[in-house]
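Practice problem: predict the structure.
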Amino acid sequence: MTTAAPPEATERLRAAGLRVTVQRVAVLEALAVHPHASADTVFSSLRETLSGLALPTVHGILGDLTGAGIVRRVSLPDAGSALYEVQDEFDNHHHLQCVECGRVEDVACATGEAPCLHPSHDHGMRIIEASVTYRAICSDCERNK
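Answer:
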């Protein structure tokens, strides 16, 4: 399958020193449409349009994209596996997770600047990120109780 890669995906891959491939572009596009997706979800969304794509290939691409800083790996309680989202270098956000259905939403940083939370003691380390997961029950699950 030969398709023209979207300029943004192509530029991000090249800027990170990664080769532009149809599979990498497709994974980036899938994450743009399905943020907070597992490797299985990405694979399921692509397997019909990309013949020959295998789940281990998707895992490898997600690893490459995460290592290059293009994609962020999100580990949340009660999520069956790691979730991935396209990383925006200027974005600083946390996550809200429904404890019933697992739905995940982005929540803006409380103070608006990284790392947005400061520990009581930094042990001589420069803090670069703080990760918060708000656990809640979404309105759909609340109505169904």
